[in-house]
Amino acid sequence: SLQAKMSRQVQARRLEGIDKNIWVEFVKLAAAYSKVNLGQGFPDFPAPDFLTEALTRALGGGNHMLHQYTRAFGHPPLVKVLAQFFEKLLGRDLDPMTNVMVTVGAYQALFCCFQALVDEGDEVIIIEPFFDCYEPMVKMAGGTPVFVPLRPNPPKDGKLMSSADWQLDPAELASKFSERTKAIVLNSPNNPLGKVFSRGELGLIAELCVKHDVLCVSDEVYEWLVYDGKQHIRIASLQGMWDRTVIVGSAGKTFSATGWKVGWVVGPDRLLQHLRTVHQNSVYHCATLAQEAVAQGFQRELMLYGKPESYFVQLPKELQQKRDWLVQSLDGVGMKPIVPEGTYFLVADISQFKSDVPDVPSSDEPYDYRFAKWMVKNKGLAAIPLSAFYSEAHKNNYTNFIRFCFAKEEATLKAANDILQKWKQEKAS
Ligand code: PMP
């Protein structure tokens, strides 16, 4: 035949072992079967009017240059207002041109961090459970992920567990640091647990970073989503940490507009200069119109900072109510929720539901995967198995949980409650 034969391996070696992805499968299942989708992390309520109005203004406002390229490392109005905002939050002067870079969502911010800072043979500490892309991104950069788990300590008084009951073992954490350690990834508030790291926990991590001269990639995309009067503490504000920390943020999470894919990094120039090299040579920049509108969103928030009208004050209030509804729904049917201190995720214990799900003896799939698939197909309710947020080596210790997203309209959460109530009645009869 005239057709050229390709017998050689076509894919680069860096893709080995990272070709399976939880989202491909579960997003497809949710699309096919779910009546109520509490799986993937995005709001089903609208983004705030001030943001969509800013986009409409940018689009129709007569500045046709907003349809063209802007500055590669961030549209000037956006980096300027981000610098102003983070100056307030961090209590230090920032240069918008060198201490801030805009990315295509927090995803690309993370990709730039690992590509720019991790070398062949470097170890990167990842706290489990973790947002799943950290592991393949570290591997693609040639690094070796080293995992350390948050360990659950169930409360003895019969109260519901809180995400605060999942803690690092200080000795275990310390044992993961060595001269090969280049960086640690911190995600507070944490997806999937909703844990908000305390000052003490952050202090411990900071101390180890300084002692071992290790960098910190601090994924803070849920920085505004903190409940019950808890405070989000930025590790970059701790002694010795600014110079070694890259803060990662997301307009998608901040302004309930995940489809816009606007993210950023904030950090010292000595780190960001290398992220700029990766960004310049891969993505170049993120849509100008979206950056313009996000800049206006931040200008509004800067003006209203700390005031009751601020979206950053209102959104967590609304989400806390939604969290409480979902906690109640799940608790009511015996799917024990772990009450999250932050984020819009909630992890629930499904160990009481084993008899509902047919055992598949030939399957090597963990129980939480089988449960989540069975639930979406038979009950129309989509959630994500927690073990997807663990390394291969530790997955099997955490197969009794699933993760729900509660950034949803009241009607969606009511519909989820109806499914759960009906299920409970069926079980009882
Ligand atoms: N980090 C965490 C912890 C996340 O949960 C997500 C999105 N689910 C991201 C980063 C990516 O954010 P973005 O949508 O802005 O790319």
TrEMBL record:
<dbReference type="GO" id="GO:0047804">
    <property type="term" value="F:cysteine-S-conjugate beta-lyase activity"/>
</dbReference>
<keyword id="KW-0456">Lyase</keyword>
<protein>
    <submittedName>
        <fullName>KAT1 transaminase</fullName>
    </submittedName>
</protein>
<dbReference type="GO" id="GO:0005739">
    <property type="term" value="C:mitochondrion"/>
</dbReference>
<dbReference type="GO" id="GO:0030170">
    <property type="term" value="F:pyridoxal phosphate binding"/>
</dbReference>
<comment type="similarity">
    <text>Belongs to the class-I pyridoxal-phosphate-dependent aminotransferase family.</text>
</comment>
<dbReference type="Pfam" id="PF00155">
    <property type="entry name" value="Aminotran_1_2"/>
</dbReference>
<comment type="pathway">
    <text>Amino-acid degradation; L-kynurenine degradation; kynurenate from L-kynurenine: step 1/2.</text>
</comment>
<dbReference type="InterPro" id="IPR015422">
    <property type="entry name" value="PyrdxlP-dep_Trfase_small"/>
</dbReference>
<keyword id="KW-0663">Pyridoxal phosphate</keyword>
<dbReference type="InterPro" id="IPR004839">
    <property type="entry name" value="Aminotransferase_I/II_large"/>
</dbReference>
<dbReference type="InterPro" id="IPR051326">
    <property type="entry name" value="Kynurenine-oxoglutarate_AT"/>
</dbReference>
<keyword id="KW-0808">Transferase</keyword>
<dbReference type="InterPro" id="IPR015421">
    <property type="entry name" value="PyrdxlP-dep_Trfase_major"/>
</dbReference>
<dbReference type="InterPro" id="IPR015424">
    <property type="entry name" value="PyrdxlP-dep_Trfase"/>
</dbReference>
<comment type="subunit">
    <text>Homodimer.</text>
</comment>
<dbReference type="GO" id="GO:0070189">
    <property type="term" value="P:kynurenine metabolic process"/>
</dbReference>
<feature type="domain" description="Aminotransferase class I/classII large">
    <location>
        <begin position="35"/>
        <end position="416"/>
    </location>
</feature>
<keyword id="KW-0032">Aminotransferase</keyword>
<dbReference type="GO" id="GO:0016212">
    <property type="term" value="F:kynurenine-oxoglutarate transaminase activity"/>
</dbReference>
